[in-house]
Amino acid sequence: MVYSLPQLLPLAEPEKLENSQQLVLFTKQWHPSQLKVDHFHEVILNECTIKELKKVLSEVSEIPVAEIEIAKGRGTFPCELSVLEMQSELDWNPSVETLGEWPLYINDDGAVLYYRDKTEAVKELSEEEKKEIKKAETARLGGSQPKTNYVSPRKERALKIHVNLPADGE
User: Fold this and answer.
1) Do residues 54 and 70 make contact, with C-beta atoms less than 8 angstroms apart?
2) Degrees, nearest 5: CA angle 160-161-163
3) Average pLDDT in the 153-166 region?
4) d(Cα 61, Cα 104) in Å, to the nearest integer?
5) Per-domain residue ranges for the chain?
6) DSSP code of 154?
7) Is beta strand 41-45 parallel, antiparallel or unpaired with respect to 36-37?
8) Which of 7, 10, 129, 157 is the most buried (most CB within 10 A)?
9) 3 state SS of 113
10) What is the model's pLDDT at position 152?
């Protein structure tokens, strides 16, 4: 069997992760006035505190630190949620000082956090607009089951175990 080495690509910018003590999180900004969620943005924290997180998010989003509210994504990655439920179903701005406290319990890299500007008003929708959004999101999210686009690079093979049993009389 021939193995090939992965192709090495240069980074577009210097590596931001400097040591294993830093925490890497995936964040998405929620825009209640537009009923829209931005794409993922990776943030790196030197301290696992809400203060540090809000400071970093403020730098990324230009929202003043005092106006940022956060919520932990629900379920497994990518933590998709309907924009109709985003405002009410997430636990916005939990009163904790560190990310490791309940209800966040973020101690490892890769957690998903949503954030918003608390001064931004929620868009009011008619019943017809709500139905259209539900229809579009049902198609996007695949009903209650999130779609995955993961394809395994190899086929699984059955494991065979051969056991040599001793012959009678040995």
Assistant:
1) yes
2) 145
3) 62
4) 22
5) 23-127
6) S
7) unpaired
8) 129
9) strand
10) 54
Q: What is the DSSP string of 22-53?
A: SEEEEEEEEETTTTEEPPPEEEEESS-BHHHH
Mean pLDDT value of segment 125-154: 70
Which of the 8 DSSP states describes residue 170? -
pLDDT, tens digit (0-9, with 9 covering 90-100), for 7-35:
777 777 777 777 878 899 999 999 998 88
Q: Nearest-CA neighbor of 87 among 55, 60, 58, 120?
A: 120
Q: What's the one-letter identity of residue 88?
A: S
Q: Are 157 and 132 contacting, i.e. CB atoms less than 8 angstroms apart?
A: no
How far apart CA 164 and CA 166 sit, in angstroms, is 6
Task: Look at residue 114 and give its three-state secondary structure.
Answer: strand
DSSP 58-99: HHHH---GGGEEEEEPPSSTT----TTTHHHHS--S-S-SBT
- Which of the 8 DSSP states describes residue 19? S
* Burial zone of 8 (CB within 10 Å; 0-12 exposed, 13-18 middle, 19+ buried): exposed
Strands 23-31 and 112-117: parallel
Q: Are 83 and 35 in contact (CB under 8 A)?
A: yes
Residue 93 zone, left/alpha/beta (φ > 0; ψ -120 to 50; rest): left
- CATH class of residue range 23-127: alpha beta
pLDDT tens-digit series, residues 119-135: 998 888 888 888 888 88
